[in-house]
Design goal:
The complex is a heterodimer of chains A (307) and B (285). Chain A has 16 helices and no strands. Chain A is mainly α and 307 residues long. Chain A starts with a helix and ends with a helix. Chain B has 2 domains: 203 residues, P-loop containing nucleotide triphosphate hydrolases (Rossmann fold, 3-Layer(aba) Sandwich), CATH 3.40.50; 69 residues, Alpha-Beta Plaits (2-Layer Sandwich). Chain B is globular and about 70 Å long. Classes of the chains: A mainly alpha (307), B alpha/beta (285).
Amino acid sequence: MIQSQIALIRRELWEHRAIYVMPLVIALLVSLMSITGQVAVSGFDHAVDIGILGASNLGENERSAAITVLMISLSSTFVFAMWILITFYALDALYAERKDRSILFWRSIPVTDAETVLSKLATALLVIPLTTFAVIVATHLIVLLITSMWLAARGANAWHLIWTAAPFFDNWTATLVFLITLSLWLSPFVGWFLFVSAFTKRSPLLIASLPIAILPLLEGIVFKTSVFAEAFFVRSVKMPLFSGLDNLELLFQEGEDFKMVGDSSLSLLSLMDLGHFFGSLGLWSGIVVCGLFTTAAIYVRRYRDDS
Amino acid sequence: MTSLVSARNVSKFYKDVRAVDDVSFEIEKGKITGLIGPNGAGKTTLLKAVLGLTDCQGTLSVMGLDPFQQRKELMQNICFIADVAVLPRWIRVKQLLDFLESVHPRFSRSHAEELLTKTKIMANSKVRELSKGMVTQLHLSIITAIDAKLLVLDEPTLGLDIIFRKEFYGNLLNDYFDGERTIIITTHQVEEIENLLTDVMFINDGKIVLDSEMEELPQQFVELLASGEDAEAARQLNPIYERDVFGKKVLMFEGVSRDRLQGMGEVRTPGVADLFVAKVKGAAA
């Protein structure tokens, strides 16, 4: 069972190379941008030197907070790309094999439909986030390394400025937790996409989007309520992981000089409330919806007869 | 029990259409059975039921298993080629072998590699880079390397040129078939497989119109080439089918002894293709 799951997931990675190619391309672009950015500011010699001097005098917490902001902003590009990747992957997963008729080959192998569909769900909810995570970690290291080399070339102590202050463990653990919880939180959409991908004869993206666009609209007009609108759109942005905290305020103090909160020990992990997340009804009802759609997708793949 | 596939009153409906209509048959171990029928006769539906790809009414047992309910177990012992286009186009030959090695308990990678060295197929090639004929070679090599009891071929050589077709059946007999394994095959090109079949089944309108061993055909069916009065006289013996060839009549008989026809003209055993036309057209008449 485990061995065939691994083989099936490996198969998904062969077919859908975008799962690792897309994050790698973004990583490459981000790394190139960090080089060109540093070359560009090097023109302003004097100001840059003062800036570096200023940074050297900051306390460790402040340097740590500054690096955290940099790391988060790098990660956010990947998180956005990841969701696009998951969406297109799930919509294609059970559609492409029917379109090129290779489904007949896959079904000629001693693997059940449930095993196949579950391997696709696992790819969407686990493999894509983990791949994204690995590339994020690599990108962080590369960008910080490039920055260190640049700093060292200007005579600054990069070890002190960056590497003693960067909260790697906290940041990476928080990123990993965030990616996995995000994919769980949005899993009902993934289930729906897989189901559409299993039954639609054409344009899975269109078929999957239509109800998401139309149901809230109809509901608003007919019943004047917004259950669907909340389920679809509020859900997408309001994940109960951060327990309602506006985390930006923790990084920056509002005020005229917009200065960083130096003395708050900035831990991303401490902003997350996993108990609240895993105790939320929203999460579990979403997982149930995902399970129902996945079951429906298995059923369709098993019972559909395209002849 | 030597019966590998056993069907009792099997039917399959698509809405109001009866694709397979109350069909019963047995296929024994070690046989090569040709399932022959016109388009839409129900061949593919029947094969799908045997492969557990579709459910059906009646009792169908393949190697003692219910194909639809026990598809996974069944697939360890069955292979099938649905037609040439079925291998995923994005996959590399090497990946295909890796995958089968890890999910198929009866797949022998070394055997597949050995068969592939006889072809021009490279381990690093993608299926989409191969010609149609090579894809079929690849598929047959894989399937030959699976130690399965039953092989189902549904129009395996569709769209291939004559050289690949000949080679395909040659390899099938030489590399795959060992007398222990069983093959069910459907094709339009009856003439090409006629010589390798041990059994033949005709299906028309969802019904089996002939189910016979090849060896028995000469006893059951006979064809007479005659003209003029001889043809007229022979017509009294109720031919199942009649056609014109170069101004002469060819009459086909079922269950009429050769002795009765001797002297009326040239007596011979009909080819499977002609027999098929006779049976199917005869049923329609």
